[in-house]
Amino acid sequence: MWQIEKSGRGVAGQTVVITSVFFFLFGIIVGSFLNVCITRIPEEISIVTPGSRCPRCSTPIKPYDNVPVFAWLWLRGKCRGCGLPISPMYPLIELAAGLLFVAAFLEFGITQTTVKWLFFTCLILILTVIDLRVRMLPDIVNWPGFAAGLMFSAFVPPDHGFAGFLAWRFLNIHVLPAFLEGILDGILEAAFGSFLLWGLAALYKVVRGHEGMGMGDVKMIAMIGAFLGLRGTFLTLLVGSLLGSLVGIGASRRGLGTERQLRWAIARQYQLPLGTFLGIGALAVVYGGPVIAGYWPSLRGIVA
Predict the structure, then answer these.
(1) pLDDT greater than 70 at residue 168
(2) Is the Cβ–Cβ distance between 278 and 240 less than 8 Å?
(3) What whole-number distance in Å separates Cα of residue 173 and Cα of residue 132?
(4) Cβ contacts of 80 within 8 Å, gap of 6 or more
(5) Are 90 and 119 in contact (CB under 8 A)?
(6) What is this structure's pTM?
(7) Cα–Cα distance, 75 to 57 (Å, whole number)
(8) Contact 278, 217 (CB under 8 A)
(9) Which of 9, 33, 110, 202 has its CA 20 to 30 A from that of 118?
(10) What is the chain's mean pLDDT, rounded?
(11) CB-based burial of residue 2 (10 Å sphere; 0-12 exposed, 13-18 middle, 19+ buried)?
């Protein structure tokens, strides 16, 4: 019996490893497409045609030089045609996508929830890197992402929704259809995040006399709310704000000025890439929350 149980555990372990490898390979392939979106969407260039080209000399990239992650390594980070450096951003995004895909599988298995978070991860990676590179959060990503969040909410509702309670309290409807309750929760929680961020932006403008964030940030948090729900949206704002503050403090300690001076300079001249910090915060909530809850069960109702 012991041998049979041991053999069963071994087979199960091998299955997890094989499936993880599949998710990683699928993730880096998707990551390659995300690179296309990240570089072309801000330029309003089709993400379908033309095919992949060197950003320096525009030479078409051969299929064997377009293998995610590995091609950059064997080309030593240079274009085969012109010999000029290729940004390490490309393999890093592909690698990040592959690792996050594996994390989604290990945490959520092969379920509808996994599909939801994989789709969300792709949207967040696109927005996070675009905002970091060009200080832009395109509507062409935010609005379809918001619609996708509502669609997924119909099948995998956000945690701790309160649409059912509001329907009972104000409309005397005791039971809502599950798909409708999920969609309503997505709408309500998107509204919570977007109005909260919009209010903070309006307050900042009144106090400082200039814009502190763009409407793209408000639209992005609405999309995040449609996916993550009330608690996840609040945690995203909290983690994103904390991360932005830590970056500011770290830069000031490296001799770039006081924290207040640095914040003022960035806000006036470059605009703090809030979307980047929100994106990192959202990924931390999705993937870090369950890990933290696993180690500290007392935090389960807070972080996951």
Answers:
(1) no
(2) yes
(3) 45
(4) 59, 62, 65
(5) no
(6) 0.85
(7) 16
(8) yes
(9) 9
(10) 82
(11) exposed
